[in-house]
Design brief:
The chain is α+β, with helices and mostly antiparallel strands. The chain has one domain: Bira Bifunctional Protein, Domain 2 (BirA Bifunctional Protein, domain 2, 2-Layer Sandwich). Helices cover 30% and strands 26% of the residues. The chain is built from four helices and seven strands, in the order βαββαββββαα. It has a seven-stranded mixed beta sheet with strand order 1-2-3-7-6-5-4. The chain is globular and about 40 Å long. The two termini are 19 Å apart.
């Protein structure tokens, strides 16, 4: 596990690890990205205050089934967010195939990139509102866990906290690890 304050792209960092022969599970996380990207290589603003991470999988399954992992990972992330914020199931949901949303907007997204027998899974989550906001085209309006927590049992996340973001990553990685163990037919 590698933490970076800021990086160009956690996906690019994980591809470098894959080329260096790192095993499945290698992970890079950051509080900000300068060139983050999502599905279809769309560039996303990834300002300080979010959680951006990517991890390497080396699936033993046929590449044709790898896209199934997108919805499975999005569902897992949605459950982690529900638990983290203390909100009911209907509040946080998956917008197929790779977005985690609430009524206020997009909370998180999953990206998958495959090459050379490897699957690079990226996840970006809006945790704290960045100073100055995020520019959008009106679609994929961002929503933030700090607002969602106020609605839930957690109450408040308080001011920006790297520790809160690190705690969220621990919860994600634990849940994703369990998913991979259970769904070895996909991973």
């Amino acid at each position: 596990m590698t933490w970076k304050g800021t990086t160009a792209s956690t996906n690019d960092d994980v591809w470098a690890l894959a080329r260096a022969g790192e095993p499945a599970g290698a992970c890079v996380a950051s509080f900000a990205q300068e060139s983050g990207r999502g599905t279809w290589k769309r560039v996303w603003e990834s300002p300080r205050g979010g959680l951006y991470f990517s991890f390497l999988l080396r699936p033993r399954t046929p590449q044709a089934v790898w896209p199934e992992s997108s919805i499975l990972l999005a569902r897992t992330c949605a459950q982690v967010i529900r638990d983290f914020c203390g909100v009911a199931d209907g509040i946080v949901r998956v917008k197929p195939k790779n977005d985690v949303v609430c009524d206020a907007g997009k909370l998180a997204g999953i990206s998958l990139e495959a090459r050379d027998g490897c699957l690079n899974v990226g996840c970006g989550t809006n945790v704290f509102k960045p100073e100055g906001g995020i520019r959008t085209d009106g679609r994929n309006v961002p929503a933030y866990l700090e607002d969602l927590c106020v609605q839930g049992a957690r109450g408040t996340l308080g001011p920006f906290s790297e520790e809160a973001i690190e705690g969220l990553l621990d919860a994600y990685l634990s849940a994703i690890g369990r998913l991979i163990d259970v769904r070895s037919d996909v991973f």
